[in-house]
Amino acid sequence: xxxxxxxxxxxxxxxxxxxxxxxxxxxxxxxxxxxxxxxxxxxxxxxxxxxxxxxxxxxxxxxxxxxxxxxxxxxxxxxxxxxxxxxxxxxxxxxxxxxxxxxxxxxxxxxxxxxxxxxxxxxxxxxxxxxxxxxxxxxxxxxxxxxxxxxxxxxxxxxxxxxxxxxxxxxxxxxxxxxxxxxxxxxxxxxxxxxxxxxxxxxxxxxxxxxxxxxxxxxxxxxxxxxxxxxxxxxxxxxxxxxxxxxxxxxxxxxxxxxxxxxxxxxxxxxxxxxxxxxxxxxxxxxxxxxxxxxxxxxxxxxxxxxxxxxxxxxxxxxxxxxxxxxxxxxxxxxxxxxxxxxxxxxxxxxxxxxxxxxxxxxxxxxxxxxxxxxxxxxxxxxxxxxxxxxxxxxxxxxxxxxxxxxxxxxxxxxxxxxxxxxxxxx
Length: 427
Known about the structure:
The protein is about 60% helix and about 5% strand.
């Protein structure tokens, strides 16, 4: 599965983000090239070849638009996907695969040097800032997971699986905000702790670092301490922990390794908490969490090559309510869909929160689900999504009403939506 299934799924996902289902198919075919010619896990190769496959078929379809004779659409579409996919697979075999393997060899040599000289904790100097810049998945699954797989095959476990996924440093940061923070950041930090530590969604603490960039020092200190503790106590996991939840960490811990791994999480938490508390005392201010969250969304969109519609990025009070949302109004609502990029993180949190509010309001008959923005069910009557995903959500289901929010955690639109649904049903 590590050698074939997961890389192909990554390639398909990358291609589908660029050019839909057709792009996903060509991206998966291209990924076969890097998989077939490699003897290491090709997550990074799949991250490269998949989007390239989607982009190539998208450009081909643009060039052919309006030039395909009637009745030949399926023939040309199928042959073009197969031929272009085969060419890309060969290109991946002779170019992308060897390049990624060479990079892997360089990284392996560099990591071996750090391990032999006891310098592996210094990796946190690059890992922690990289996470804040949304390179966390690329770092964890593109670099550390292949290295960890090789080490785990030999020794039964690997420290590399915990370098990025350790939830301790993030927990310490959020605890510091809970105790010595100010403003909305202080009040929202306890809820963020649950999502980060138990849910494994590390992105939840990124806005807290951006509010005071100096806090990256606390994250680096906590990360270095965690890695040092793992090395000192011979800790590690048997496979990648995804997401970086305490439950996933414990499930991936080998028998006899619980003390070392838990100690690494606790040590990383304590150090990041102490450093963050000191830095907040010195550099603390009345933090604007909403502004930082919008900056996070903009950075995430930029990292994916997407553009942000600046007029739509507004405070919650400026976001259209249910009455102002696009779609057919006045019809009883039976199904609400929360949509985000992947349909697993922020949308799942929002859906859970709205379910509780609807149940409390006696509206248990309304179904609430979460979904990727590209796969919104056609029977959805109301779509709740971030303002940045407005156009994609409307394109996925143009008949549904849109409720646009800027923060999946505690958006006032949830209460407005519940009140309007209660009024519709006369409750």
